[in-house]
Give the backbone structure.
Amino acid sequence: MGDEVIYRATSTEDLDAVLMLAERTVERDLPVGLDRNHLLTLAQRELRECIERPREGRHLLVAEFDGEVVGFALLLQRLDVFQGTTVVHLHGLAVAEVFSGRGIGSRLIAEGEALARREGATEMTLNVFSDNSRARRLYSHLGFGEELVKYRKPI
Amino acid sequence: MQAATIRAATGADQTTVLMLAERLAEFELPPGRQREQLIELDARLLRDWFAEQPEGGRLLVAERDAAVVGFALLSRRVDQIDGERLMHLQALAVAAECAGHGIGRQLIAACEDISRDVGVSVLTLNAFSNNGGARRLYQHLGFDEELISYRKRL
């Protein structure tokens, strides 16, 4: 493949491709009690909102290869609950299956970090399901540290 | 080991509960977190509770030999992902001299009873990743890890 992957902010033409890629975020085993279709609907609603109604503090970056969107990262500005400082939260990340393992996710995160720094954020946060060990390895490798664990008990 | 009595907190418990709350920050904190900030955040939650006693929120205390030796703060929440109603254990602390006496366990059992009584079938809580003692207790009591929050300094 001679062409390079391009990383850029989203535009309205990306909508369909991004909504389809969102399925990647619910493909793996989910914690008990979570409904796949419901999660997908929520994710797609957020992505559509982000593309159709751009707003300060909300960014969707896409990775494009050969004219196709092959990955995205959704970033939201937030306040740190403990310190009141501005952080950028990686709210969603997906890479097309055929492009997985090529560092596109890492590069999307790096682009997100650069964007966060430009916005004056000193930290990036993200949440991941506890049993998603592949993603957790990637985040540790990229310098993210575990901070909080959310527990749940059916009673 | 003598069991504690679990009861609803009253205004008279405020001073003791706030003192006990400093226990909440007595573990090795994650990098970049300040003990004072953590204590202040918990203290604010508790002061708010004593000031407003919000509907659906509960503050329980564990009492032994007429002394308050632990507390649990519960609040009603709605799951961010699927909208399910749940109870969230916002804070749990036991006096250092009573650690290992099963008082945390008693408080959690009482929280589960209250949750059931109000028709909620899920109890959630957060623990700092490096608070190993608390995490072992929660796992032992049947809590499952669901979500992990990560953080990176830029």
